[in-house]
Write a structure and sequence with these properties.
Arc Repressor Mutant, subunit A; alpha/beta; 348 residues; binds S-adenosylmethionine; 2 domains; 10 strands; 3-stranded antiparallel β-sheet; Rossmann fold; 7-stranded mixed β-sheet
Length: 348
């Protein structure tokens, strides 16, 4: 039986950018999101949410557990209450339900690695002005990861957490059949998508191709799941890499936005050539078809300074797929849309 703490139902999270009076106050829109992000990231780094996963604690106990000052933890906790991430129970502080669900090991998906990654990515944002002037980054994320390997490890851990969220959608919507035996996971990073599919479909074997920076923990993760006989890792640049023969299912999950249009056209043609008849290509992406959507616009801006690449419209994917020879092309928008879309296509 799970005896971990279950928080009471939440009050709605306040919009902290709104002034309390009737007059507008422009700088709140800048200062408050900055402080909100900084406080949540610090709480993640300190392990504050996880420390409260089993139930409320008072400030002295919490400060002791986090090896921090009581003054610092009190100020941080007070602000986290103000933004709806914690709430008070008398003298004790507790996780709000959303915090417990998304930022602790007791929740549905623990996005704490996303907090660690965002702390690493934060200084790169300082280059946004220059990236806007230049029209791209000075060095790409992948080059930065070569120089600073912990960046690659932190990014893969974040993608691993996101894969925990996306995993059930993929399992529900990707029709693997008994004849499908070989899975190729391009840009497969942490390996969790291959692991989940190999767990669900005992006839599958998988090959993960990714840059070395993304694969530092992958073999260990595969071994921890007891799948070292069935899942192998092959480090390299996916466009020039040997994919070891023919496959039945190919994953191209959150990889297209890291490549130029020409590179994607070439990759999709190579995938078609590497598929057996009846084989399936699965693309997960953030489509550029919703220009008014704030998340999609933020993501495009992130790509500008991180990789210099972009998101593409569904019509562009159809064009690449049809040119390569694919048929039976289907699109499925996930809920919420910020989770992206799946595109499935089949080789006849
Ligand atoms: C956004 S992550 C997605 C990871 C994983 N597919 C998932 O959906 O969770 C993109 C991945 O593509 C990999 N990648 C980017 N450019 C690549 C290239 N040229 N060759 C191989 N992998 C690449 C990155 O290292 C990273 O692991």
């Amino acid at each position: 039986m799970n005896t971990r703490y279950t928080p009471p139902p939440p009050p709605a999270r306040p919009d902290v950018c709104q002034p309390t009076g009737s007059a507008d106050l422009a700088m709140l829109d800048v200062y408050m999101p900055m402080m909100k992000s900084a406080a949540i990231l610090s709480a993640g780094k300190l392990g504050l949410f996880e420390a409260l996963a089993n139930g409320p604690l008072d400030i002295a106990t919490l400060a002791d557990a986090l090896q921090s000052s009581t003054r610092g933890i009190r100020d941080l906790a007070d602000f986290l209450v103000a933004i709806g991430y914690l709430h008070r129970e008398g003298e004790r502080f507790a996780n709000a339900p959303g915090t417990q669900r998304w930022f602790t090991s007791a929740g549905q998906v623990d996005y704490t690695p996303g907090l660690h990654w965002t702390l690493e990515a934060w200084p790169m944002m300082g280059d946004l002005t220059a990236a806007v002037r230049r029209g791209g980054p000075e060095t790409t994320l992948w080059q930065a990861m070569e120089a600073k390997p912990q960046l690659g490890t932190a990014f893969s851990a974040y993608m691993d957490a996101f894969a925990g969220d996306l995993g059930p959608d993929l399992l529900a919507h990707v029709p693997v059949s008994p004849e499908h035996r070989r899975l190729l996971d391009l840009g497969g990073s942490h390996g969790m998508h291959s692991i989940r599919f190999c767990q669900r479909y005992p006839q599958l074997q998988a090959l993960i191709v990714d840059l070395p920076s993304a694969l530092s923990e992958t073999d260990t993760t595969i071994a921890r799941h007891g799948l070292s006989e069935r899942i192998h890792v092959s480090p390299g640049e996916l466009l020039v890499h040997d994919w070891h023969g023919q496959h039945d299912v190919v994953f191209y999950l959150s990889v297209a936005h890291n490549h130029t249009a020409d590179e994607n056209g070439l990759a999709i043609q190579q995938i078609y050539d590497a598929l057996n008849p009846g084989g399936l290509l699965v693309i997960h992406e953030y489509l550029a078809d919703t220009p008014g959507n704030a998340f999609m616009a933020a993501f495009r801006l992130t790509l500008l300074y991180e990789t210099g690449t972009q998101t593409y419209r569904y019509a562009q994917y159809r064009d690449w797929l049809e040119t390569a020879g694919f048929g039976d092309i289907k699109r499925l928008d996930l809920d919420p849309l910020e989770k992206g879309s799946l595109i499935l296509a089949r080789k006849a």
